[in-house]
Amino acid sequence: MARPIIYKDAAALLAAIFMEAESDFAAATPPVVPDVLAAATERLLASNTQAYREVLIGCALARLSDDQIDVRLPYVNQGDAAYNGRTLDEQVVNPFLHEHEVPSSKGPFLSVFRRSVGFAPETREGLRDKLGFDALLVFLEHLRAADAATARMYLRFLLHGLVKLRDAANVTLLHVQRLSVEQYEILIGGLLQVPSGGRLPVLLAVAMFQTLNQCFSLNWSIEWQGINVADRASDVGGDITIKSGSELILAVEVTERPIDRARVQSTFSTKVLRHGISDYLFFFAAATPTPDARALARQYLGQGHDISFLPVKDWLVSTLGTIGPRCRAEFTVLFIAQLNSTDVPASLKLAWNEHIRRLVGA
Q1: CB 128 within 8 A of CB 27
Q2: What pTM did the predictor assign?
Q3: For a disulfide at 349, which of 171, 212, 239, 286, Cβ 3.0-4.6 Å?
């Protein structure tokens, strides 16, 4: 009799490793694996037979669920070391890939094989994509020989490749016609919880400044820079700068990092003084400024320099509550336009879609 798999646990494991793979992709630091395995994975990712990649996800989950499973035997009638590959795919792998919009096959991965076939060299002759299957076998042998930690790393490497494929694909963003202020508060709170390396708070703030500019004809010039671009290198005073003609009227730093006295002092000397900024605003998304940071800002105020702190969520929600339904709709359009940029990771676009579905029941 085949060995059982707890599918709920397998699904949780896949979700956890996939999240790690997304972080790897965002940081451009894929796991280090043997060259031969990396080459096999590249061939699998280039193969038109998407099911081969899904086979390996199922095999890796089976291996990590129970090291007594022979991952070459995905049918329950193949002996005591076999497992139910079809159910694992139908309940875990395929739904997960579709939910996360990873390019994947429509049906179960075993549909490309003859019934009761094993993942072995002799299976090769009956397949159309022989080179892809050869790569699958290379990956599978590394998986079988690995300890649990290494097998997990191999799955993470494969998922990193799938995240890369997804990022190259076009993710269609969901649009909404109308949201209440209460719904915006839920939506913004959810988006600010998404790991984004600071990108989502910046995009939200930029969209709001653009909304104010358009709705109230402020004639602002709004400039902003990419995440992790050094202010000194780009010769700007903050993440977002707002000008009226040639006059710099506001510089904004959007941060998820703690704001302490040393940071305020550094900001004052390297940005406020250097660029002659009269109004500098910290938008914080997480930790609140320390008391000594606020005390130093009050000291600078006495010297004629405004350095202020605002929680970005509170500012966004309060502003949305006061600009009226037309401008709220404009904010949504402008934020989606920012999010739709080609340099925004697909994971953030999918996060938007997920939160919209939850909010409106789409």
Answers
A1: no
A2: 0.71
A3: 171
